[in-house]
Amino acid sequence: MWFKKAKFLSLCMIVLLVSLVGGVAGAVSPIPADTDIVADIVEKVSPAVVNIDTLKIATYTSPFTPFLNDPFFRRFFEGMIPQERQVPVKGLGTGFVFRSDGYILTNAHVVSGADEIKVTFLDGREFEGKVIGSDSITDIAVVKIDAQDLPTIPLGDSDAARVGEWLIAIGNPYGLSHTVTVGVLSAKGRPISAGDSGQEYENFLQTDAAINPGNSGGPLLNLKGEAIGINTAILPYAQGIGFAIPINMVKSILDQLITEGKVVRAWLGVVIQNLTPEVADKFGLKEAKGALVADISPDSPAEKAGIKRGDVILRVDEVEIPDINTLQQTIRSHRPGDVVNVEIWRDGKTITLRVTLAELEETISTPVPEKIDLGLEVEEITSDLAEKYALREKSGVVVVGIKAGGPADDAGLRPGDVILEVNREEIKDLNDWRAAINKIEPGETVLLLISRGGQTYFVPLKAEEPES
Length: 468
Fold this sequence. Notes:
By secondary structure, the chain is α+β, with helices and mostly antiparallel strands. The chain folds into three domains: about 30-260, Thrombin, subunit H (Beta Barrel), CATH 2.40.10; about 265-360, Roll (Pdz3 Domain); about 365-460, PDZ domain (Pdz3 Domain), CATH 2.30.42. The chain contains eleven helices and 28 strands. The protein has helices at about 1-30, 35-45, 70-75, 110, 245-260, 275-280, 300-305, 325-330, 385-390, 405-410, 430-435; strands at about 50-60, 85-100, 105, 115-120, 125-130, 130-135, 140-145, 165-170, 180-195, 200-205, 220, 225-235, 240-245, 265, 270-275, 290-295, 310-315, 320, 340-345, 350-355, 360, 365, 375-380, 395-400, 420, 425, 445-450, 455-460. It has a seven-stranded antiparallel beta sheet. Strands 22, 23, 24, 25, 26, 27 and 28 form a seven-stranded antiparallel beta sheet that branches. It has a six-stranded antiparallel barrel with strand order 8-9-10-13-12-11.
């Protein structure tokens, strides 16, 4: 009797173990039912994936150059120490052909500031590329090469993509051409900070397919072989967390990039923030829904229509506004000149204002005075720049342009950096900036205090003679 029970228990344990092993194997298996599907897709689309190599010429100043300002050192060493040298700076990324007549999608940051762009195909063919359209807000660029009848990758539907479905990334990580990685769609609608400005991008796709430097601009593919995203960013402190621009976002601006070279966006002219339950209660709202107006840009559509600081935007036309992301996306879906009805909450009641949207203009930068050249352009912090660069500072001047190879470029400054001090003098606005800069002579070292991502840094750079 005891033997029969033991035999029965042993049989049960064997069945249980087999079931568990089968279940675990089924749970972790990274291979779809058709084991050749990934290889088939890669073989089909790889001819349309390209490596993008960029080159820009940077001017570097010798660290011994400041000593040559001293007559004693200049007497003995002038002519022996090269003060400047031209150095080629290389970059790499990925792209993919979406039109057979030579149109390639990639990231804007991959080709930004490039003096030369080389596009290389899987079969070794090389072409000279030219940027015909770029948008820093979405980090999307279109590169054109002189070629016809090229293989292409179809653009899919990122809205239809499901969390958990299998994805394939192809790119050029660390120069390792046409590297293939596989993962799943981990999440949709992720807001992340990315790019040189550190600004927050919305609605990204998250994947655990390995993405590394050099993958930027490459396709994120579904199992139909369609591009549903453009790989663009990683979290350097995490593993298995990469991000891609949804392809539907790309398709929404693609025609403008090709025909106009930029994206024309509507502009409301407000600085907004989300409501917390505590803030909503203070404004007499039952729910923490809406976009709270924290500031108004002077002479903006919002100001002209009568929107005020402290208003809560609840609806734009028929679209309910539960948060600031919805408001931003709703405004961007319109064209300049469109008239919209904006429903707001003010002093315990709702009112509706008609607003004629304007065009979000490119930043009008203020160059450094002719006396010196620091290789950068700055602007006062406006509500639009604060939104564009996700700035926390209220005073100072923000860097909006960097000259390739100039002193600011050599020192590692970026668009979106906020300059708080010049030579230990506080900078509150453009007037302070101009006054401080006018005290500096060519050849002097300038000490800047900058703020980037909530941290402050002292950055020395050399004032140069302006180009004639």
